[in-house]
């Protein structure tokens, strides 16, 4: 049998192994440790894992942080395991803002943290940006890569009825400000901002005035290449219809669950093509979760159900049929404040 050279072994074999196996193989020798610790290998490994779609669901509970396997869009029964946060804090004091390539952007008691739950590596970003810290009632954010493959963090802050935007560079370890749309009043406390959702080279936020009462709704889109913001219409443009949205990505395409209640509860899924939203699914088995029942609900999904939490605290469950589960099995990103999908990688939160 012909021997395999080291480069072929790295590309064809090691890059396809689980993250925890990679950490073990680093102990083979110094050469292996150097290669498997390189940024180039981390990116290659991440690409292979994204293709395999071996996702995990991380959930925050009263006493634990739990991780489940997700297979074809469904939670694998009996796969739950508990993990620890890097430092001691009640799990429900955390808030998930964004998930990308195994990294989670997390809020924890006025701190903004970039965390890899697989390796438990983390960095506290707000230590380098002490001007305002992070206020969970008024701030939001997202993770993305720029055209130079530098991992960046977008931080949206609302202070004094104004919106301020800043970008953190992992490569250089610094923050800098970027200009927001000055013609809006989205800094007002009457608006709620969703967490950011990355699709292709754009980060999307839902900005809404209210939940079940009349209120305006917008999509704020941030182009990660030009670092500029623009507005996109909400799928339901009639402000008289009480509604709310929840962003997800399917095969890297941005989609939105829209929950509305003109008379009875309606849940639909829209896909953005260009600047226009097109309806792709309508769900028949949905219901509002009462306030008393919310503590006993999973945070974003269970076996055949998706849980949609509004930025105003309302919760709706959507039970999926076979056709709907098939369409949604290729979900890339589905985040809630207490839950998020991610993949297990060796991507580092620091340079």
Please describe what this structure looks like.
The protein is mainly beta and 351 residues long. It has 2 domains: 1-52, no CATH class; 53-343, Neuraminidase (6 Propeller). The protein has 5 helices and 28 strands. Strands 1, 2, 3, 4, 27 and 28 form a 6-stranded antiparallel beta sheet that branches. Strands 13, 14, 15, 16 and 17 form a 5-stranded antiparallel beta sheet that branches. A hairpin with a 5-residue loop joins β9 (140-145) and β10. The protein is globular and about 70 Å long.
Number-wise, the strands total 28
- CATH level 1 name of the largest domain: Mainly Beta
CATH topology of the largest domain: Neuraminidase
Helix content: 10-25%
Identify the overall geometry: globular
- The structural domain count equals 2
Which runs of at least 5 residues are low in confidence (pLDDT < 50)? none
Q: Please indicate the percent range of residues in DSSP E strands (runs of 2 or more).
A: 35-45%
Through-space gap between termini: 40 Å
What is the number of helical segments per DSSP (H or I, 4+ residues)? Answer: 5
Shape-level CATH architecture of the largest domain? 6 Propeller
Mean pLDDT across all amino acids: 85
